[in-house]
Design goal:
- The chain is mainly beta.
- The chain is built from 1 helix and 8 strands.
- The strands form 2 sheets. A 4-stranded antiparallel beta sheet has the order 1-2-3-7, with no helix packed on it. Strands 4, 5, 6 and 8 form a 4-stranded antiparallel beta sheet that branches.
- β4 and β5 form a beta hairpin.
- It is elongated.
């Protein structure tokens, strides 16, 4: 029986370092819950945002007497941010703008942009 301690080779050490470095990538993104959060909208829209970790959504209602435009802005971890289609809301109307993170670590934050 051979009870000599094993030595890690250079390749084994590199593989261990790569494995340790990629562990945070598999962690759940901070915004990866399906709960809605109020979104600040300076132009009079009443908005909430939510995410399932891949898709981000902005649900807005126009409570003003003016026509308003908005879209969702999704901050993706390790991937370029994405924006949804512009939505036009007449007074009293509601709609949803959505966008998804194709790759990376998923949705980190969901914001609303008015224009």
């Amino acid at each position: 029986m051979n009870n000599k301690p094993r030595r890690l080779t250079g390749l084994a050490l590199k593989l261990a370092a790569v494995a340790a470095a990629t562990l945070p990538v598999f962690a759940v993104a901070p915004g990866a819950s399906a709960q809605s959060e109020p979104a600040a909208a300076a132009g009079g829209l009443n908005c909430t945002t939510d995410t399932d970790g891949v898709w981000g959504h902005a649900h807005c209602t126009n409570n003003t007497a003016d026509v308003k435009n908005f879209r969702v802005v999704v901050v993706c971890g390790g991937w370029p941010d994405v924006v949804g289609d512009w939505k036009t809301l007449n007074p009293g109307a509601a709609d949803t703008s959505s966008a998804r993170c194709i790759l990376g670590t998923g949705v980190g934050r969901v914001d609303v942009e008015e224009g």
